[in-house]
Design a protein that fits this description.
The complex is a heterodimer of chains A (310) and B (277).
Chain A: H1 2-15, E1 19-23, H2 32-37, E2 42-44, H3 49-61, E3 65-71, H4 72-75, H5 80-89, E4 95-99, H6 117-122, E5 128-130, H7 135-146, E6 152-155, E7 177-180, E8 185-189, H8 194-206, E9 211-215, E10 218-220, H9 224-233, E11 236-244, H10 249-258, E12 266-272, H11 283-289, H12 294-309
Parallel strand pairs in A: 1-2, 1-3, 3-4, 4-6, 5-6, 8-9, 8-11, 11-12
Antiparallel strand pairs in A: 5-10, 7-9
Chain B: H1 7-28, H2 33-38, H3 40-50, E1 65-68, H4 74-84, H5 125-139, E2 145-150, H6 157-168, E3 174-180, E4 183-184, E5 187-188, H7 189-192, H8 198-204, E6 208-213, H9 217-225, E7 235-240, H10 263-272
Parallel strand pairs in B: 1-2, 2-3, 3-7, 6-7
Antiparallel strand pairs in B: 4-5
The chains are: A alpha/beta (310), B alpha/beta (277).
Chain lengths: 310, 277
C-alpha cells in the first residue's frame, strides 16, 4: 500500500501543481519519484507533527493541496489538537495519511499501534474518514479525497496487502462496495482486514450459510443506505475492523441503530479489546489475539445466525 | 499608492484603539484587557503602516498575512480591523452578545474579513504562518507573513518545532514578533517556565533576532518595514512590552489578565487617555 500511495501521490502532483507532500521524517527513498517530478513540493517536516499539521493548514489556507504522511499514531493522536483546530475548524483541504494502521506494526509495540484513530477522527466536524482495503481502493480514495474541499483522513496499511477482486469498480466516498453476494448474513469489513472477512464468508458457505460482504472504505460519512438495507434484509450484521470495538465503524453503526426505529437485525462487532497489547508478535498473531480471524468470525456469526433463526 | 501615516498619527491611532478596547471590555464584561493593551502598538504599526493589505480585497492572493497567534488579544484585533475598514464598525456592537460572530478569540477566516487564522489555542499561529510563508515560495509570490506571539505562548513546544523548520528551510518571508509583556495567566513568564534568555533562544534556533521597545512606534515601523528575502534567516522580534500599557493602574498588574473595569475605573482610564467625559 505504501508503494501504491507513493505512486498515486506522484501522479497527483504531476497533474496538479498545488499538491505538496509533507512527511514526518519517514519514507526515505519512497518519495524519490515524487521529488524528481515535483520539484520544491516535498517537505520533510522532521519529527514534529504538531508543527507539520499547522504548516499543512497554512498551506491549504493559501491555496495549496497538502498531503501529510507519517505513521498513524504520529499523524493522529500526536497532533490531534492541530487536526481539530487547524484542519477541521478552518475546514481546509488537508489530506492526512496514516501508514501502518491498526496492528500493522504489531512487532513495534503499542506506541506504534493505532486502534483508536477511526474513533477520534470521525468525531471531528468537517472530517471525512477513509480506510481502503487494498491498493486499488487506496488509489481511488486518494483521487476522491483530492476532489473534496475539506479535511480527509486516510488510514492505510503497510505493504504486501492482497488485492481483492471486485466486480464493482465504481468508487464513491460514502458508498460501500459489495464484494460478495449472500442471502443469510451480512459481513461489513473495512480496511486491510477485508481478505479475512472474505475467508470468513467462505467458511460460512461451507457450513451452508451464504454471506454478503461489503467493503466500507468510507467510515465517515456513513453509508446509511447500505447499513439500512443490511439490517432490513439480514438477521445478523457483523462488522469487522482492525480497531477498538469502541467508537469505530461498529460504533458508528450502533449510533445509526440508536436513531432508527423498528430494527430487527442484530449487530455483532469484531475488533480489538479495550487494552494495550503487551505481548509482541506478528500482525497475524495480534489479529488472532483479538479474535480477528476468519475462523472466529465465521463461528461467532454462525452461532448468531442459528440463534436468530430459532 | 497611499501615503503612509507618520509616527504621530500612528500614536494617535493607538490611543484611540486603547479607548475602544477598554470601553468594549467594560461594556461587554470580557477579560484579557492587559494582554490586549500590550499588543496595541504592534497591531497599529502593522495594519496602518507596514502590511501590504487592502480591506476592500481581503482575499487578495498577494496580500501580506498577519496572524494574531496570541488569540486572546482578539478584542484588540477586532477594533483594529474595524478601524482599518475590513468591516463596518457597527458590526462590533454585537461583541459579547448571543449569536455574535465575535468570540473572545478570532473566528475562522471564512467568517470574518481580515482574519487569517482562528487562534486561541496557543502555539498554532506560527506553524500556520509558516505554511503560508512556504506557500508563497511555491506559488512564487512575494508576500510576507507576520505572526504575533505571546511570551506565555512560547511555553508551547509547537512554537519551537516551527522555529526549527523555518530556520532549516530558510523561510525569510516570515516575521515572528513576541509580545514580551513578562506575564502569563498566573505568573511571571520567566518564572513559570525557564523562558529566558528569550532573544538568545530565538537566535539559537536560527532566527535573525532583534529586541525592541514594543511601544515605540519608530522602532516598530522600522522592523516591520524592513525588506525581507524569501530565502534567508527567518526574523524574530522580541518586543519588550508592558501588560496593560496605557493606563497607569493597569500597567504591569497581572490582575488585568481577567479583571473587568468598573464604571469608576473606566472613567479613570478615559482621563489618562485624554477622553473628555
Amino acid at each position: 500500500m505504501r508503494n501504491a500511495f507513493a505512486d498515486e501521490v506522484t501522479k497527483l502532483g504531476m497533474a496538479d501543481p498545488r499538491v505538496v507532500l509533507l512527511s514526518g521524517d519517514i519514507g526515505n527513498k519512497l518519495f524519490d519519484k515524487f521529488k524528481d517530478n515535483n520539484e520544491g513540493r516535498f517537505l520533510n517536516c522532521g519529527i514534529a507533527e504538531a508543527n507539520m499539521m499547522g504548516v499543512a493548514a497554512g498551506m491549504a489556507l493559501s491555496g495549496l493541496r497538502p498531503i501529510i504522511y507519517t505513521i498513524t499514531p504520529f499523524t493522529t493522536t500526536r497532533c490531534y489538537e492541530q487536526i481539530r483546530v487547524d484542519a477541521c475548524y478552518h475546514n481546509v483541504p488537508v489530506i492526512i495519511v496514516g501508514t501502518g494502521s491498526g496492528l500493522s506494526y504489531a512487532e513495534l509495540g503499542p506506541t506504534h499501534h493505532s486502534c483508536e484513530d477511526l474513533a477520534i477522527m470521525r468525531v471531528l466536524p468537517n472530517m471525512t474518514v477513509l480506510a481502503p482495503a487494498d491498493e486499488v481502493e487506496l488509489r481511488q480514495c486518494l483521487r476522491a479525497a483530492f476532489k473534496l474541499k475539506g479535511p480527509v483522513y486516510i488510514r492505510i496499511g503497510k505493504k504486501g496487502e492482497a488485492i481483492i477482486p471486485k466486480k464493482d469498480d465504481q468508487f464513491e466516498i460514502g458508498r460501500s462496495i459489495t464484494v460478495r453476494e449472500g442471502s443469510e448474513v451480512c459481513l461489513i469489513g473495512t480496511g486491510t482486514l477485508l481478505p479475512t472477512v472474505l475467508q470468513a464468508a467462505e467458511l460460512l458457505a461451507a457450513k451452508g450459510i451464504t454471506a454478503r460482504v461489503e467493503s466500507f472504505h468510507t467510515i465517515k460519512p456513513l453509508d446509511e443506505k447500505t447499513v439500512g438495507d443490511a439490517f432490513s434484509r439480514y438477521p445478523v450484521v457483523a462488522v469487522v475492523e482492525e480497531h477498538s470495538r469502541i467508537g469505530g465503524l461498529a460504533g458508528s453503526i450502533a449510533e445509526w441503530l440508536a436513531k432508527n426505529e423498528g430494527i430487527k437485525g442484530r449487530l455483532i462487532s469484531f475488533g480489538t479489546d479495550d487494552d494495550f497489547m503487551h505481548e509482541i508478535g506478528t500482525q497475524d498473531y495480534a489479529r488472532a489475539k483479538y479474535g480477528l480471524t476468519a475462523e472466529n468470525i465465521a463461528n461467532k456469526v454462525f452461532a448468531a445466525h442459528t440463534k436468530a433463526a430459532i | 499608492m497611499t501615503l503612509k501615516p507618520n509616527l504621530e498619527t500612528l500614536r494617535e491611532l493607538a490611543r484611540e484603539a486603547r479607548v475602544r478596547i477598554i470601553t468594549n471590555a467594560h461594556k461587554t464584561q470580557t477579560p484579557h484587557l492587559g494582554s490586549c493593551l500590550s499588543c496595541v502598538d504592534v497591531l497599529v504599526a502593522a495594519y496602518f503602516h507596514s502590511l501590504q493589505i487592502d480591506p476592500a480585497k481581503p482575499q487578495d492572493p498577494d496580500r501580506d498575512r498577519f496572524i494574531l497567534s496570541k488569540g486572546h488579544g482578539a478584542a484588540s484585533l477586532f477594533q483594529i480591523l474595524a478601524m482599518k475598514g475590513f468591516y463596518p464598525e457597527e458590526m462590533l456592537e454585537s461583541y459579547g452578545q448571543d449569536g455574535s460572530l465575535f468570540a473572545e478569540h478570532p473566528p475562522s477566516p471564512d467568517h470574518l474579513a481580515g482574519i487569517e487564522a482562528a487562534t486561541g489555542s496557543l502555539g498554532h499561529g506560527l506553524p500556520i504562518g509558516l505554511g503560508m510563508a512556504l506557500a508563497a515560495r511555491i506559488h512564487k509570490k512575494s508576500y510576507n507573513v507576520t505572526v504575533l506571539l505571546g511570551d506565555g505562548e512560547c511555553n508551547e513546544g509547537s512554537v519551537w518545532e516551527s522555529a526549527m523548520l523555518a530556520a532549516a528551510q530558510q523561510v525569510g518571508n516570515i516575521l515572528a514578533i513576541v509580545d514580551f509583556n513578562k506575564w502569563q495567566a498566573t505568573g511571571r513568564s520567566e518564572e513559570v517556565m525557564a523562558l529566558g534568555p528569550l532573544a538568545d533562544k530565538w537566535r539559537a534556533f536560527g532566527w535573525e533576532t532583534r529586541e525592541i521597545d514594543g511601544h515605540d512606534m519608530g522602532q516598530l515601523v522600522e522592523v516591520l518595514s524592513k525588506k525581507r528575502n524569501s530565502h534567508a534567516k527567518p526574523v524574530a522580534i522580541v518586543a519588550h512590552t508592558v501588560k496593560g500599557k496605557g493606563v497607569s493602574f493597569m500597567e504591569d498588574d497581572n490582575n488585568w489578565h481577567y479583571k473587568i473595569p468598573s464604571v469608576e475605573e473606566l472613567a479613570a482610564a478615559y482621563k489618562e487617555l485624554g477622553v473628555k467625559s
